[in-house]
Amino acid sequence: MTRVVVISNRLPVTIHPEREPGDGDVEQSSGGLVSALRSVVEDFDEVVWIGWPGSFVAEDDQERVERRLREESSSIRLVPVFLSKEDVEDFYNGFANASLWPLLHWMTPYTRFKKVWAESYRRVNQQFADVVLRLSRPGDLLWVHDYHLFLLPLLLRKGNGEVNEGSAANSPRHQPPTPIMRPKDLPPPLDTCEEEEQPQDGDRSADDLASRPSHLPDRLYPFQFLSADGGGGEAGESGQSPKNVRFGEEVQDFDSVTSSKVSPIKIEPPYKLRIAFFLHTPFPSFEIISTLPNCAEIVEGVLGADLVGFHTYNYLRHYRSCVVRMCGVTPEIDSISHLGMRTKLGVFPIGANCQSISEAMQSERFSEHLRTYTNQFQGKSLVLSVERLDYSKGMPQKLAAIERYLYQAKEAKKRQEKGADQQHNEEDEHVKIVKERAERLKELQDRFQERRGGKSAKGGSKLRTSFRKWVGDFINYAGSAGDEPLDHTRTIFLFIAVPSRQDVEEYRNIEEEVHRSISEINGRYSTIDHQPIVYIHRGVSVDELAALYARADCCLVTPLVDGMNLVAKEYVAAKDKTVGNVVPGTIVLSEAAGAAQELFDALVVNPYDEDAVADAIHVGLELTKGEVLEEESRWEVTDRMRKAILQNDAQTWARKMLRELQCSAGEQTLGSGMGKLADHLPMFTARFFFENSQGTKALFLDFDGRMLKQDDASEKSVGDNDKICPFSSVFTEEDDRIFAALSARRDLAVHIVSGASKECVDGLFGQYESITLLAENGLYLKRPGQKWKPFCPQSSVEWMEKVKPVIELFCRCTPGSKSEEKATSIIWDYSGCDDEYGLFKAKELMHLLALSLGNLPCQTMESHDSCLVEVKSLQVKKGLATRMLCILQEEVREPFTEIMCIGDDDADESMFVDAKKAAYTVKVGLGPTMATHRLRDANEVRQFLGAIVAQKHAGTGTMLNGDSMALFKSIDERPGSSSPIDEAEHSEGDPLDFLANQEQESADAC
Known about the structure:
Blueprint: E1 3-10, E2 13-15, E3 26-28, H1 32-39, E4 46-52, H2 59-72, E5 76-80, H3 85-104, H4 115-135, E6 141-145, H5 152-159, H6 206-210, H7 254-257, E7 274-278, H8 286-289, H9 295-302, E8 307-310, H10 313-327, E9 335-338, E10 341-347, H11 354-361, H12 364-376, E11 381-388, H13 395-417, H14 420-425, H15 427-451, H16 465-481, E12 491-498, H17 505-525, E13 533-536, H18 542-551, E14 554-557, H19 566-573, E15 586-590, E16 603-605, H20 610-624, H21 631-647, H22 650-666, E17 679-680, H23 685-691, E18 697-702, H24 721-724, H25 733-743, E19 748-753, H26 758-765, E20 771-775, E21 780-782, E22 789-790, H27 800-813, E23 818-821, E24 825-829, H28 835-853, E25 858-863, E26 868-873, H29 878-892, E27 898-903, H30 909-914, E28 920-924, E29 933-935, H31 938-950, H32 962-972, H33 981-985, H34 991-1005
Parallel strand pairs: 1-4, 1-6, 4-5, 6-7, 7-8, 8-10, 11-12, 11-14, 12-13, 14-15, 15-16, 17-29, 18-19, 18-27, 19-20, 27-28, 28-29
Antiparallel strand pairs: 2-3, 9-10, 20-21, 21-22, 23-24, 24-26, 25-26
């Protein structure tokens, strides 16, 4: 079994350091999360909870508080994170509650932002990360909760060495946090894993270094074989191993390590963290969250998790949209590939704490409270509202709807009290009013169901038939009786308004407005023996609350926006008809609450529509309190909702998410999703690429302007070529030096395989004498010193006439998009469109083309990274062209002794598939691939090409000139290209010990 580490802003206790031990200094909290975790303790070795203890603790008292928390920890171990008074104010009251909370609930007028708050938010998240990293161990499940810790998942990855500081998404809106380093007070990585005794330096053989698990995550060891003079790390004439300029130690048995193709040696963290993040609030749309100055940092911080959970799919959809627009990442439906890993997105609606409600209903105090309320509200209808006094709960709107309901009830009472003749004349009007009210309510439910996407296969609404029957019965009853026996003027609205953040001006204003409205309503509609609104401005015990749930005829839950709202679920959970004096009940529920996605039999309303809310209260009470339905029918829908709530309670929610985390973390691979797992291509592959065999080697290199693009490169101008080649602006002076050096090698045949036009490819690479060029995915070929000629003359393009009108139509209806026509393909480019809308139209175009192209000799491909949809001939592809070149080489000259194909998009997959089995196939970047190896980005491509340049000529025993080696060394030393070798540079002992130890740690972690 494993250990669960829960990280939240607050511990499930509140510390009062001023009190004596045992005298209420540790106050226990209750809640669904606490109950859920206590119920799953038996499923795991241990449950640890990390959080702020709820109050400022002076440094002198912190040790005592930690000791008291250990004493109070029973099934759950409590670990405090102590915050300064300034951080409590700026982090909690400032950024979390004054900046994030209103935005997450669409309340932009209440939002305030200060730079010092954001700095405190980063600092506290880092403080949490330090504590978690100090306590974490292999196999732990780290479960991060809520908006207070948005940055924590990515900070944990960085602190554990799983993500490079420079690997974050490069967004113009993104303001990166302060650099994160592994905390100095953490134990050394070797102390975190149990491992076997390592052999001494002289006892380590080459097999020890080479025999590593091939499935380990990729963390590389580039450029480790440079000698002191900048050359390759070859043994001298005496057979002694050379000194390495970086390590200053002798490398043992080096040649035997690199004499065959072994799995790349990788340096990685001692273990990979398994992280889940759950958001308990809504997540707003891009337009709302983008008003936050550091919004991209917030969105990106969550991406450090293996699993991200939301209450509803709408919140997931909003977050995924923000990832597209802010982080430049194109997600899948339920996952996001980024930073060399995959984050799974899921919907996990939190359940009610049914266990706590059930336990309370078995107590004697509950029975006493229920008997009291049954007698107190005899002959009256009770509508219950339990809310925190927060502007997102819609209290003013709720009171307006209640006043509307009371006015309608008062008018109906007047009609009933009139004489028989007048009453008979107004009867038809009364029935008409009742029917209109029911019809409006039925229309409201239909509209909500349609917004949920609830259409059956035949096109009809899947609105539950029981509710339709309810409304139908209500209409028929009103039409036949012409009178309502239920006296709605005797309805009591019981408000339990829990005080919240009374030191904040906005909350004080809401409180004053609520108190004023309640006073006005009571003054207007109260009688000597009846007061319509009972207001309790405090929290109540679980026993008392459960009794109120059990007695209430209706629960009014109408927040303006709410992540889930567990009050509605707790109310249903308390409706146990096997308990005496418990009555059936209905729920008037806001469609903006997450619970509306689950409680299908609730009366769902727009919280801003006071007429609809008043109608729902009226109909709900008639159905459960009036004479419309029989007793058994009143319980029917209540029981069905209760069954669903009990099956998906807080314990089930916790187990489901933790189980999903275990599965998601096990699927984390850089190339997951298609084909095989691609190992990272180590830099020393360049050496045995040349040394394993004599003869000419072939390098097939894709170039379309993206694979070598870097943001900080010094650009090289190619004059008039800028007009004919859109990729010329990303071709740098460094690229020029690399390709010139590659072209100078006599044992290497370099091929540029591009989807660009002949003019573009020739303008960039025509100056290099010995490079073979293929343009338009292999349709045209230009050998060194020759002219362009067709290379696939059998291709047919008649299908293009059918595709052109479709592409032109999408260009017209999608602002910012454009098309490009080539000899054997047509491209629709939506890179200039709005990110999300462009992706939406691309999916639409792909679907339309799939239906219309049928049996034509062409294929449709979409590249999210390039923002392209391309329709191209099946008879022209890069894989076919490279294979034909290899066959021609075998027929005319000697075959290539080694082959390497490097590409970065879907068009290059044909090269990987059609290449010989022994060939090196290299995918650049993230995403699914059929390649055997992988390089992360353009910088690593340059580094590897530089490593090729630096190798000696096979069979000559001589190196290239000093300029080539200087080029290689300059690439290695470029800022931002640091490697794990820098860590070994400062380690003690033999450098290969460091390398092998890291391998052993990785194997143990796996």
